[in-house]
Write a structure and sequence with these properties.
This protein is of the alpha+beta class and 401 residues long. 25% of the residues lie in helices and 36% in strands. The protein folds into 4 domains: 83 residues, conserved putative lor/sdh protein from methanococcus maripaludis s2 fold (Beta Barrel), CATH 2.40.420.20; 102 residues, Efflux pump adaptor protein, beta barrel domain (Elongation Factor Tu (Ef-tu), domain 3), CATH 2.40.30.170; 46 residues, no CATH class; 76 residues, Orthogonal Bundle (Helix Hairpins). Its main location: membrane. Belongs to the membrane fusion protein (MFP) (TC 8.A.1) family. Pfam families: Beta-barrel_RND (PF25944), BSH_RND (PF25917), HH_MFP_RND (PF25876), YknX_C (PF25989). It comes from Rheinheimera muenzenbergensis.
């Protein structure tokens, strides 16, 4: 045998020894009875944990995400230009509709009002004089002392002055309105935001920044979307006139923030997303919900009573449909199911179970029909510590990185 043959033979022996070390089972079953061959671990009963299929009530929920939106949001702006004399609110306060928020310097608008009122007084005096002359012209016209043209001209003057007085009155009303705009009041009830301007600044009418924003947060809305595939139960409930409750949960979906009612469905499905927008209203008296807040939404569509339910984790899915493993005579058997609504990790079974069956929840990966099983409890499901006197499993060294 050549040196090259000896080299390859030695390499093969080393490879076989290494494979045996890594892949040979580290634990043998309990001591075999004399004369019997040790049982393969794959032929031993599979430890499983089971749950019972029990009847109960189940809520049909649609889970989605939504955004909190105020019923009304108003940017408070000044309708007139001028110096902002004072702000009469505190940022973040709740205000009522009509409450005074700010004061613009009214001096310019008081002067304009006085000018309009003075012009009116002047024209009233002219009208009074013209009407006296018209009364005199009427007597002279009866005596044919003046021409008809003079009488008609005086009549026209009186009419002209009456029109001027109406115009003067309109100017007074406009001046009073402008003067009233120097007192800026809250158009709606709600909570104030941060102010956008300070006292002493010269502000312009209808400025884009405005003075402050008011949001109506009680009650408040939540906007969310429902997929088209889940829409039919919602439409059926709305057409029956049912009042559907809506729950708003926090971002982590761990804490219930508020409960409200579904109020509005949009009139068309969004073709880009295949969803329909819905709106729910919440009383929000304690202001648990904040405008533009992200929330997890649960729309309660219906409550199914006395339904057979199981944990969703026990359900398996295959080419023939949904199924579970049942324990019969300490052996695993497959049972095909027809499933219904689900809620919080449980799912309704429409057909396939009658109640009381032992359904496998854990240990599913090694099961097959007819496989022997060993049902264990919650404590036994945890890895047991090695007892004194028992051989501990061999710990293999880590492979080099």
């Amino acid at each position: 045998m050549t040196r090259q043959h000896l080299y390859w033979l030695g390499a093969a022996v080393i490879a076989a020894a290494t494979a045996a070390y890594w892949f040979w089972p580290s634990e043998q079953p309990a001591q075999a009875t004399a004369g019997q061959r040790p049982m393969s671990p794959w032929a031993m009963p599979v430890p499983v944990r089971v749950i019972s299929a029990e009847p109960g009530d189940l809520r049909a929920q649609i889970k989605t995400i939504g955004t909190v939106t105020p019923l009304n949001t108003v940017l408070v702006q000044s309708r007139v230009s001028g110096t902002l004399q004072q702000l009469l609110f505190k940022e973040g306060d709740k205000v009522e509709a009509g409450q005074l928020l700010a004061q613009i310097d009214p001096a310019d608008y008081q002067i304009q009002l006085a000018q309009a009122e003075g012009q009116l007084e002047q024209n009233l005096a002219q009208l009074k004089n013209a009407e006296s002359d018209l009364a005199l012209y009427a007597k002279l016209r009866e005596q044919s002392s003046i021409s008809a043209q003079q009488y008609n001209a005086q009549q026209a003057l009186v009419g002209q002055l009456k029109g001027t007085i109406k115009s003067n009155q309109a100017q007074i009303d406009a001046a009073k309105l402008q003067l009233s705009y120097t007192r800026i009041t809250a158009p709606i009830s709600g909570r104030l935001g941060l102010r956008n301007v300070d006292s002493g600044n010269l502000i312009q009418a209808n400025g884009a920044e405005g003075i402050v924003t008011i949001t109506q947060s009680s009650p408040i809305n939540v906007l969310f979307s429902v997929p088209e595939s889940q829409l039919q139960p919602v439409l059926d409930a709305v057409r029956r006139g049912d009042s559907l409750s809506v729950e708003a949960w926090d971002r982590s979906d761990q804490q219930l923030l508020a409960t409200g009612r579904l109020t509005t469905l949009d009139n068309q499905i969004d073709t880009a997303t295949g969803t329909l927008r819905l709106k729910a209203e919440f009383a929000n008296e304690q202001e648990q919900l904040f405008p533009n807040q992200f929330v997890n939404v649960r729309l309660n569509v219906a409550v199914y009573q006395n339904m057979i339910t199981i944990a969703q984790d026990a359900v398996q899915y295959g080419s023939a449909g949904s199924y579970v493993y049942l324990i019969e005579n300490n052996k695993a058997q497959i049972r095909q199911l027809t499933l219904g609504a689900s809620d919080n990790g449980r799912i309704a079974v429409l057909s396939g179970l009658s109640g009381g069956e032992q359904v496998v929840l854990e240990g599913l990966d090694r099961l097959r029909p007819g496989r022997a099983v060993e049902v264990i409890g919650e404590q036994a499901a945890q890895p047991a510590a090695a007892q004194p006197g028992q051989d501990k499993p061999r710990r293999r060294p880590k492979r080099p990185e």
